[in-house]
Amino acid sequence: MATPMKVxxxxxxxxSLLQDEELQDGDDDQSTVQEIINATGFGxxxxxxxxxxxxxxxxxxxxxxxxxxxxxxxxxxxxxWIVFTxxxxxxxxxxxxxxxxxxxxxLPVKSRARSIVFLSCFWSxxxxxxxxxxxxxxxxxxxxxxxxxxxxxxxxxxxxxKIIPESPRYLLITGQSAKALSILRRIAKVNRKPGYNGDVxxxxxxxRGRIWHLLKPPYTKTTLYLWLIWFCCATLYYxxxxxxxxxxxxxxxxxxDKSVHSCLCKPLLMDDYRDMVVTTIAEFxxxxxxxxxxxxxxxKKSLCLQFLLSxxxxxxxxxxxxxxxxxxxxxxxxxxxxGAFQVAYVYTPEIYPTNFRAIGLGICSSIARVGAMITPFLxxxxxxxxxxLALCIYAFVAFVGAIFAIRLPIETKGxxxx
Length: 418
Hints:
Radius of gyration: 23 Å
Shape: globular
Number of helices: 18
Order of helices and strands: HHHHHHHHHHHHHHHHHH
Strand content: under 5%
Number of strands: 0
Largest sheet: none
Distance between the termini: 22 Å
Helix content: 55-70%
């Protein structure tokens, strides 16, 4: 009798050129890693892993790197060293995306998408906490203490290295079957499920992935589309954050407040911190929306829908309206873009095989940083000069993201990880 995982896989194989290597050519008495994880289900083990990865949202090396250069930034003697240490800190933060790779490989198919979306809530919680920390620290101790305190969670995460497991799929590929079985049995024990005593079906022997493997068939089109989608996500996400204060001082009918161009630095007031917290909270409804629709309509349609609605709301921002209308539209846009970003985090690890899954996610995250570097020129340089043009460009980016999302070759809903 076919296992439940094989039934699910057979129903989706016709959609994909990327067959799951673990389901090919093996003994029927053996089980794949995905089948074993599906059997152990979602339980205490995955909940603990969610909390561990959610608290720091990074891996050991990148967490220590971020802590080290964050601490050096707090002690920077000049502007040059501030810029250098912040650049190095950003380099470390880029490794945080790999937490999703490990997490996704230890989740059963049914709960994988929603669990990854839920994990992203910790990002928003951390952002809200950072604003509250700034409210407490900045008026009394200054920015150096704020940077130093903000680095401490990364150091705490470094001591969790013995708790966070290695990927069983990676261990199998590298010939460490005993360690892979040990992790799978540990998952079953913690989740109070019967332990697996058979052999694990070995995946096909493949060399460790390289960047150019992402552009080889049958991944070429998928990779290029994903790079563009991640670029659109980052451009919109950081764009709406940066242009929110600008939209309140630029009149919707095309007139600008001259104070926008003045170079005046002043301490943030309580109302400023409050508005930043409210704006950040907008991400939670967006994640809930993504959480609801991602398993109902699939990854591709979820991405497309959220990009499409974001573009429509960006066009509506051009219409003259009250401050409340602006606030509601900005709230909706940030929630939708945040949700789209999380769906991209779900889809990307699902589409690539184990030997270059981490590279695929890492390159996508790097492409997103390009969008993050470009968007300040739109949100804070172009928008005060021509708010209509800036909003049109952002809406265009959203619609481009929607088009390429729906054109992705493969729908990964219910699909076994390779």
